[in-house]
Amino acid sequence: MKILIKFCIFFSIFINANTLEYALIKKGIEDNNTLLLIGGIQGDEPGGFLAASIVATDYNITKGSVWVVPNLNFPSIIERSRGTKGDMNRKFAHIDKNDPDYKAVTSIKKLISDPKVALILNLHDGSGFYNDTYINKDINPQKWGSTCIIDQEILSGSTYPDLMSMATRVKDHINKNLLNQSHFYHVKNTHTAKGDIEMLKSLTYYAVTQNKSAFANEASKNLNAEQRTYYHLLAIEEYMRAMGIEFNKPFELNVQNVKKAIEKEIQLSLFDGMFNLNLLDTRANLTYIPLKKGEISYTSSNPLVAVIKENNTYKIQYGNRYVTRLNPQYFEYGKKLDAINVIADGVKIVAKSGDKISVKNSFNIEKINKIRANIIGYNSKNIDESGENVSLKNMINRFSIDKNGKNFRVEFYEISTNKYVGMILVEFE
Fold this sequence. Notes:
By secondary structure, the protein is an alpha/beta fold. Helix content is 18%, strand content 33%.
């Protein structure tokens, strides 16, 4: 069976060269029992922002309401930094209007204070493993990893006033699903109001001052990214259950499936589908990308994807992971094609610009009036490469967009003007 894959794009980002704003994804049906889930306040803590992005992309909220901000400090995520302009989690008591983080901090404060929000969960990766008594340099009271954090035991008048009981419930749930007993979780009460100078400046304590039930979950930095993400997802799910929020997801929660969710294919669309990429095992550099001059716009199926202009190229990142670099060749754009006929393994498929075709043996692009097809990586004597039967053995491997040499671009241009009018991707099974 031949497959036509149409890209499903969920998150829109419009940027200039140096601006990266956080995404807000609202899931479920809004009510006054909304969970506000935050990741990425510190960009060197991938477990938190990866877990939040998985909830944003893979979880279906069937009862209740969840708002997800997976990349609160997006610039620091891209730079793999705790904070490119200082620690954002120490700017909630006061922030100067000239601070580069001012817009993000003030806008997330408004979300925290929204009457619909009943509980805030901030995701962190902390050092070592917390323990009440000193065991060794990695397991002691000064560490933050493997903890459910509260600022105080009781917050009277909030939706969930018994913070200690809820954090204990989550802690117990995680400890029933440990990967190793050394990862044992504890509840850590910072007693912030009693004078913890640093925590008084934090996001969760700001939420407490707004009479909002607030928690932080700290996975250990001693673990790899998928293990940290696994523990965060355990915590998120139990907080949702405690709130009466119901959900489902397309995988069983274990480390192997979490790794697959982190590394699954991501779709990226530039200029409203004029040029699309699937980001999976992508080559480190892609050349002769047909772009138009001016500010770039893009959408992606994952909110952690960013396209950043660097000199004359565009760097693509997924969180703090470098994906590829686009080296543009500039064209004027014409009207985007909305009907491209492809014969894939003998079966006719009607595609539109940006779609991906799955092919087992060969494909043939039907001729389009006044349009020429350019199959990138296919060596033909003809300027217009439509009407030719093409198989994988005809393709030059280095022109594929993926490292495995299976995905290729087919681009379309007006014959008279050479305006670029769209493309499709062909994936050989």
